[in-house]
Hints:
The protein is of the alpha/beta class. The protein has nine helices and eight strands. The strands form two sheets. It has a five-stranded parallel β-sheet, with helices on both faces. A three-stranded antiparallel β-sheet has the order 3-4-5, covered by helices on one side.
Amino acid sequence: xxxxxxxxxxxxxxxxxxxxxxxxxxxxxxxxxxxxxxxxxxxxxxxxxxxxxxxxxxxxxxxxxxxxxxxxxxxxxxxxxxxxxxxxxxxxxxxxxxxxxxxxxxxxxxxxxxxxxxxxxxxxxxxxxxxxxxxxxxxxxxxxxxxxxxxxxxxxxxxxxxxxxxxxxxxxxxxxxxxxxxxxxxxxxxxxxxxxxxxxxxxxxxxxxxxxxxxxxxxxxxxxxx
Length: 226
């Protein structure tokens, strides 16, 4: 039975919405690993550390206590007892997260925590959907099912721009700017030395460009249920 589901893909491909929807429908736990990297980045910034100063970020990586909730209905994440679910979504964190995520010590620390959450689900005899950019290739290479979500770059840019605007109408210039930012992040994450974003060889590719959220959730649930 499919119990551990690894979902990877670039920003704007629909990972978070799809994974939460799948987990809610099937009664699985849900882990947003991207939120964990954002939480570490928030902690780095709060500590007054330059996110591009790799030696200092590396030395700091073991300091903050990061606790990730796995309830898909209300996923929360805490740093040293403080709920940072909202603060980690600020532009400041978004602009620094790729740099912090590329530090090997950060990835080692958080990958260990991610594997621990997956083990917890297994011990409780529960399924878990884990989303990120290196889940099937690095974090959980033995996952029962690996899915790689993708979408046309223009669609991804529109989705992310709408998300950042809170669902309001978005100007073409803002969409173009968002698309450029996503392109740069993809290039950075795909070329970093530590756990680059790649598609696992045995991952099922799902192009969400022409699919609604409900259709993608249906499709992934179908893959899980065989």
